[in-house]
Amino acid sequence: NYEVVLPHGKIVNANANSHPDLFLALKGGSNNFGIVTRFDFKTFASGPFWGGNIYYPITTMKEQTNTFTSLVASPDYDPYAALIHSYAYTSESQSWIVVNNHQYTKVPTVSSPAAFSDFLRIEPQLFNTTRVATYSDFTAEFDLESPAGRRNIFRTSTFVNSAAYMSVYLDIANSTVQPIRNVAGL
């Protein structure tokens, strides 16, 4: 459930039964539909799980996007597997890198879950933090990527599962970086 202040000032609860279209739109729509003032959700106990980040050079992009689209399109998609597949521009090298954040919420009986085996085979890897750890350990790792006193922009986009479109999307993102890439301190 989301409690939302709509643009005209009315306060509503958006959930599966009340304002279901707004509820669906708020899942991934940023805050373009109102200001969310409260979240209500169920919690559950969580033990250690497998996860972490793997950073790759942008030269692996084609293999990455093909692997990602295959994972998402698989009729045997593992419900315990979650992957945030992203690209990051680094001002130090003035280049893009591929960043995959993996989570597998059922502790695997082997060193890594089969759901991510195709990603784990991609080389070269700049660094790899995958391991079995607690939710708070992974949160602390994520926090280290945003140093205090620095700002960053983290946005998401949802679109059709297409390696070709992901390539176009990166081209668009790169075109927005180029005008500011030489600004000191970025």
TrEMBL record:
SUPFAM superfamilies found in the cross-reference section: FAD-binding/transporter-associated domain-like (SSF56176)
Domain of life: Eukaryota
Keyword Transport: no
UniProt-listed InterPro entries: FAD-bd_PCMH-like_sf, FAD-bd_PCMH_sub2, FAD-linked_Oxidoreductase
Keywords tagged on the record: FAD, Flavoprotein, Oxidoreductase
Gene Ontology MF terms in the entry: flavin adenine dinucleotide binding; oxidoreductase activity
Record carries keyword Oxidoreductase: yes
UniProt similarity note: Belongs to the oxygen-dependent FAD-linked oxidoreductase family.
Protein name: Uncharacterized protein
Native source species: Cryomyces minteri
